[in-house]
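The step that takes the researchers longest sounds almost clerical: writing a folded protein down as plain text. The outcome of that step, for a single protein, is printed below.
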Amino acid sequence: MLDFARFPEKHAVARARSVLAFLAILITTIAPAAAFASPPTFSPDMALASDSGQVDVQWQADGEVTLTMSETSRGTKLVYKGTDSRIFLSGLRDGDYELRLAGEDGSLSEPVVVEVRPQSLSRALFLVLIGALVTLGIVIVVLRGARHG
């Protein structure tokens, strides 16, 4: 039998190696997979501009994500937290919105900027005028048909 009192430094080195080997095995086998997960990313085919104030946001992620939205004049707010991979945002006003995803492990996506630019007033009035003319035409056709029929 070895007398460790005679070789204290060898005993300490052996004990340290044993502890390190145990910790290495423990970390590689028990550590959660989320610790090694890639950061969440936005879908490359996501529209980055809107003329209606609506945006369909899509992403890929392993596990739960947190979606935040920043607007220059209003600051940052939490938009979504969960395990889905898509959310539909509506009611956005004219402006630029920075979206960012955070994974469970704290990893952050690259930010995405969505530009919301509503249709011009002249275009909206033009479409209303066309709708009014079509409606008037239908009313005239119906009234003429009623007189002749």
